[in-house]
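Supplementary Text 2. Reproducibility record for the structural model of the 862-residue chain.

All settings were left at their defaults, and a single model was retained for analysis rather than an ensemble. We include the record here because the model underlies the residue-level annotations in Supplementary Table 4.
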Amino acid sequence: MAGRSIRTYTVLPHLPERVQALQKLAYNCWWCWNPEAISLFRRIDADLFETADHSPVKLLTALEPNRLDRLVRDDGFLAHLDRVEEAFDNYMAATTWFHETLGEGVGPGAGVAAVRIAYFSAEFGIHESIPVYSGGLGVLAGDHLKAASDLGVPLVGVGLMYREGYFRQYLNADGWQQERYPENDFFNLPLIPEMRADGKPLLIKVPFPGREVQARIWRIQVGRVPLYLLDTNIPQNTSDDRQITSRLYGGDNDMRVRQEMILGIGGVRALRELGKMPTVCHMNEGHSAFCGLERIRIFMDEMTVDFATAREAVTAGTVFTTHTPVPAGNDIFAPQLVENYFAAFLPQLKIDKNEFLGLGRQNPRDLNEPFCMTVLAIRLSNSSNGVSKLHGTVSRKMWKNIWPDLPDAEIPITSITNGVHTRSWLSADMLQLYDRYLGMQLEDRPADHSVWARAEQIPDAELWRTHERRRERLVVFARARLKVQLKNRGAPPVEVARADEVLDPEALTIGFARRFATYKRGTLIFRNLDRLINIINNKDRPVQIVFAGKAHPRDQGGKELIAEIVHTARRPELRRRIVFLEDYDMNVCRYLVQGVDVWLNNPRRPLEASGTSGMKVSANGGLNLSILDGWWVEGYDQGNGWAIGAGEEYTDLAYQDDVESRAIYELLEQEIVPLFYNRSRDGLPRGWVKMMKRSIGTLCPVFNTNRMVQEYMERCYAPAHWRFGSLAADRLKKAGMLAQWRRNLTRGWPQVRVESVEGGSADPIQVGSSLPIKARVNLGGLSADDIEVQLFHGLVDSFGEIPSPRTTPMNHNGPPAKSGDPWTFAGSIPCRSSGQHGYAVRVVPRHPDLANSFEPGLLCWG
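Retained model, structure tokens:
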């Protein structure tokens, strides 16, 4: 009704003083990776906890006063509460790995400011009760924050607070995916509003064409780590702008640009308002790449420096992780769209339109190339990495045009393999088993990976019985969920009743759950259905498969895969053996990874950047059956799971599907099923348990986020923090000098050339000797200190290339007698192995403050 004015107020649950600690625990997500805390909230009201999506905040809000009164009189509950509160307080106050090993003074520079890392991501999967994630990228981001908390890394998260988050999935009667978007009730989430001193909400503003869009700041506390989330759904914005944080990955490119401006530019402004400006920004995927531009603008404004100087400092303090191994997965915008949205922002950067757009182009001089957020992120980062070794290789090939003269092996994109936050995904049963036999306290010693080697000491019977209990719980969960699905779909009562007969608690159980993108091939195992039916319906050795996963709302191919699974599962001979669970989320994922015997993963190599679900399975004693792609290339050792194929890549995709589906059937028939059902006299599958222990002992120490975050800290954050501190000191003095050096280098580089190369005449050369090389190099107007002349050498392949090159610097004996003449450089190549070798001479830039010699993108080959 026009003119209606509604005033709002918030009602909070009143907790008696004796149980006030429940509020403290509910508003810190530490509880979600502490089994004792989860058990405490479940103890309050188990049924209500289930219906509240396992949310302590919702649980406390919905409690009747008389239930609270009974809790206050329950001595057992109060003792449980006191134990959990003490554990939480001890956790928050404990000395951590970061302070023990690195402390505040990170890096070799004296006087460097205390490190603070800001981790930007478009989604964060902390827990199913906080639905601001879609899948693997978000869950990884959530696990990253949890590990940073455990390790004490001084990190804050930055993201968006979506009103609807990602969609909830249900299937219609034909098995076709439908989407619904329930609104998040912010006041039933563990959201803490950031307020100004006068008690009003803290707001930030981001310039948009013809207006400013404002955003409110919410905080979710993840252990020791705060996660700040921006929300544009406030009265100060137009109805259109209030939609910016409405839906994760919703809308068209226009909406995507707006979301990414709020995330990147707004995220930095939020940290500035909160007094938490970072020394290092970590961009988790390219969605937040605009944060670099905002940090540059701030330096220009505060320090009165030019764009080039500010860029040097900001780039030094930025880390970028790419997750997408296909070009289509990277955000690309039309130049006109970006230009329109940055019309108000661009004048503050004091660079022209083409220079600005060139930051997002692989070839900055190609005015027709679109603007790519991944390219912008790479150009504004001190280091860039993929999320597995194979993905690092794929990424170097994908983005090599940024460095067109550089061999693939030297493209400055490295890799740090993903991990999982083990405690978040371990069943309580497995955690107790590990505490008992590995002598480990995962919470107290998060950085000690050596204890996993003690997995061999776990008694076979205890490990197997623990795992069997988890499989039984998975079956009970799947049956109950299937019944709800069928009822919601309007299935007849007889079909609903049959849900109690699906799956067998003692049968070999395979899990397949992930985002239903077509390259993940969710129906590959159905390629020869008759053969699969024979495997599944073996009377003495039955096999069953549990599927789950969502397709993107616009991915028709992914939806077709889900429909095919549902239709196949309805066949009379498969009805009890194949189940598809709707609305895959972190809760469903936990039941699956804790309960399955085998985790199936069959993407088209090399399109799986990393994958992490199989890591969660191995921590719970499950085994992996996977294509050698992503993390499994590094994890598989022939005794800790199974590989589908040998890492081949195909151009004929139908032939590939035939070959790899046959490989799955053969592994099931000849190895997996016999090993599972081959029991000793005491009923134990000794061979299977042996493989379980090997999987735990070899995979858990490596594929976890504690190792991953340590690696980021040591290889990325600390060097970026030190370099940022060095360049930003004394009002960006060194950054200004580096920017001026870069300008001189760019002007002088066209005159640099290798005039001649003289090598030893003897051929062949004996192993153990060396090959002397001389080169005459024209430096133009540059000095010898500006460059390094290198010998680029190694074994030559059949294409005449050097796939694994080594470099050896060449030295000079002083300037030439006549100014302007070429300099003479000399060096030698040690001959350590026989074979066909080759070499070339090249010139690269050199400066003590450069991140690496290839970063300027200048290279001169002889």
